[in-house]
Amino acid sequence: MIIIVIMVLAMGVLSYTKLPMEFLPEADNPQVTVSVIGPGYDASSIDRSVTGPLEKALSGIKGKTNVFSSSGDGFSQVNLNFDSDTNMKDAKSEVEKAVNTVKLPDNVSPPYIVQLNTSMIPISFVTLTFADGVSDAEKVTLEERILNEFNGIDGVGSVQLSGKSQSKVSIVPDAAKLAEKGVPLQALYGVLQGRSASSSVGESTLDGQIVNLNVTSSLQDANTLKRLPVAQGVTLGDVASVTLEDKKESTFRIDGRDALQFVISKGANANAVNVGKDVGKIVDKYNEEISSVNMKIAVSTSEQVVHSVNSMMREVLLGALFATIVILIFMRNVRATLVTIVSIPLSLAMTLYLLDLSGITLNILTLGGVAVAVGRLVDDSIVVIENIFRRLQKEKFSSELVIDATKEVARAITASTLTTIAVFLPMSLLRGGLQSFLLPFALTMTYSLLSSLLVALTVIPLMSAGVLKNSYIKEHQPSQRFVRLLEWNLRNKWLPILGAVVLLVGSIATYVAMPKGAIDSSSAENINVSLKYKPDTPAAQVLENGHKLETYLMNREDVEWVAMSNGNSADAAKYGGVSSPALVSYMLKMKKGKDAEKVMEDVKSEAVHYPGAEINTSTGNFMSSGSSTQILVDITGNNLDDIGKTAEDAIAKIKPIKDVLKVESNQQEKKTVYTLEVDPAAAKAGEIVMQLQSMLNPVPVGSIAVDGQNVPVQIEPVLKPTSESELSSLTVMTEAGPKPVSSVAKWTKTEQATTFFHKDGKSYIRVTASVEPSQLSKVGAEIDKQLKDVPTPEGVKLIVGGASADQSADIMSLFMMMIVSIGIVYLIMVFTFKTIKAPLAIISSIFFVPIGSVLGLIVTGVTPDFTAIFGVVMLIGIVVTNAIVLIDRVKHNEEKMTIRDALLEAAGTRMRPILMTAIATVGAMLPLVFGSAESGSIVSQSLAVVVIGGLVVSTLLTLVIVPCVYELLYFRKSARQRKVAAATVREVAAQN
After folding, report:
1. What pLDDT, in 10s, does the model give residues 457-497?
2. Which end of the chain is less congested by CB atoms within 10 angstroms, N or C?
3. CATH classification of 121-164+249-469, choosing from 1.20.1640.10, 2.30.40.10, 3.30.470.30, 3.40.930.10?
4. Alpha helix (H) ranges present in 834-862?
5. What is the DSSP pairing of strand 614-619 with strand 559-566?
6. Which ranges does the record mark as transmembrane (predicted)?
């Protein structure tokens, strides 16, 4: 046994070093996103020529529940949601096949298809800035070199790069000079044709040697381009200006300098901490070796993983310490305490080994499972050692006594451990995302509890035999006050039972009335700021004001650094990240100890200096999204006017509701669109489209090699109309020769939505209400109530969704799981006690859980969230443990006592182990109440408060009410026994 114990501890330590560390367990998001970027295209064109064909191609995908699409200026995005049981790898493959059949217009990017997974959560955000004087060619070389190094890290899944340079040569034709020289615009389109070549033309014998003959010519700078002939005696420089521009695909700046951003994600089953360390080494290496480079790790989630693991481990150790103190206080024997706490390291070692075998990673959920289970790890050992300890107070030590005392409680602790595990079996009934998150947590709990049972039945008796052999143990007497109180309760059992029922009804009513919040995953270390203009605002104006706000943010003393981004990049689109070109986003890193709320208020007050713009702030990080506390109202129908009117009515109803921070809809923003309606009898619309596209848009004409880099060359638009009259005076070629466009067509001016939304192919309007996180359930219910009064025309539907609906669905899933858990617990009890009535008394202890849980929430003022319900589910397994230990003793006693005497003896005897196990569990949970819960963790303060409150009250009520319920179930038999006992007493008295 000693060798086995050492081996188990060694395997646990080895497993801990081997287990991959990550922030969250791997879980697929049941959604596939298709993104397309089309710079220069308006929302209407994107909707018609990109989104429409994509939706049509994707309509036959199996397993999808619905399809949402959005088309805006320069981008299209289609989101397909799937059933939770869909294999997402197959779904993504099917979407790729469907999308590949779609023929998209010229000048739009290829479709980027992404299926997100929690393993894609970025490990590091690295910024790169260059010193002044570094050439574009050097920048590109360094970009690629660093990118390759990051991709070469063992365990890296992907590296996303934004802000990279895209040099181009711009040719701006001069219309007056073209006319003066008599050169048509079309002559410029072929200016590069045949100018660059590199080819072998044969071989020849020169001076007795065979040599190869090659022809080569390459254009390497803008000045050479200017000398190229476009007509007889006319060069390109005579009729156009030629410039080399350093244009960026998207803007990314750090502290006012243009920068590159590398977003590094790990691969599946890779160790997040190791990947993060390797990223740090590369950053240090380049900062030391190349003086012109300044690299900085802006955010590192691998550091957060280490922090999470360390803080959870700290809470596990603190929990173990509290449990030890509790045992020592009750036992008043150091040897017995040491024997008991051996179960903690042994059980943890076995748990880590089993997690390693199961391929489960070390993350905040599995560590949360350990933190919650640590109090239960000593429960079985406490019951075993307490029973041995109690027997040794009256009997002489022997090996047989230790074996017999262990056997006496073996059934009770096995049944109680199995019931706790059984609570987690219905995890398979939960929805996809919930199941992926809760299953690792449940398996950790299961492994911990099974390990602790095994230790309690093997190692604890063995150690007790060795450690307690020669120790003097003072006899412990049950509390006579408690026994007298219980006796009174049993005589007046309806009073305590009725009191418990009243408390139960009151607690449930109180919980229903309480506001339920969202899991708060914000961090005040970082602040997100957005500057949003109307989509028709010129890009130059957006960027100019973006730089102005950036300067203000950088000059604040409480901000460490400022990152600014604008525009869409191909790399971001690959991961589903597309945004309006009129949006500038900032991320602020706060200095330690500074007030984030004050910064947010000050930034919002700056809005007066940015007329026509909207400034929003939120706490969070690079991965934050405001959707967690948004309630969405989708209005669908066939008539856009009816939908629009209903949306306005819905907004009017939602706006006045308390704790609604902001209400907006996708149809509130409009922009002016001019549409040319061509007379088909006067001209061919297709030809006019081609002519106007070439005159109003840049036209690529080839590329040249600059410093070894391939640089595209494009002719800029010849026409830049600035008024309606200039639009009408445009000249186009028709079959009858050149004519003003106004003679063959008519421009019509309309106000159109800046973004088009479709749901399953139909137009819809989405109203988004941002809500105070702690009041999510209350506001959700009030919005539901108010929307019932909104009149809906025929065919128009209102569908409420978002965070509030998700929360309700998650809570319903957990309630369903709770009912199934109670059923499984009852079946285990029936098999254990081989009776139907006794398990009912044990199950009754579960109904006291809400009383303590709600009381705990009221006393602490903590807002219950989804994890609080999960805490109640866990309590089902923990609470019945105490009732099982009590009723098991009662059943043993009934063989030689009346039911009432059996209850009084069992309650007096088992009171100490029941209080010890409950207080040890509460002590182990205390660090979770006062510690800082990790963002995104299921082990929140709310869960800890619910478990502690529920356990304290239900333990006290279990000792008083369960005996009352038990006697009530056997009231005839008990009454008969008491009559017989009373008659016997009278007979004895008469004889005396």
Report:
1. 999 898 888 887 766 666 667 778 888 898 998 888 889 88
2. C
3. 1.20.1640.10
4. 837-843, 849-860
5. unpaired
6. 312-331, 338-355, 367-389, 409-429, 449-473, 494-514, 811-833, 840-860, 866-887, 914-933, 945-969
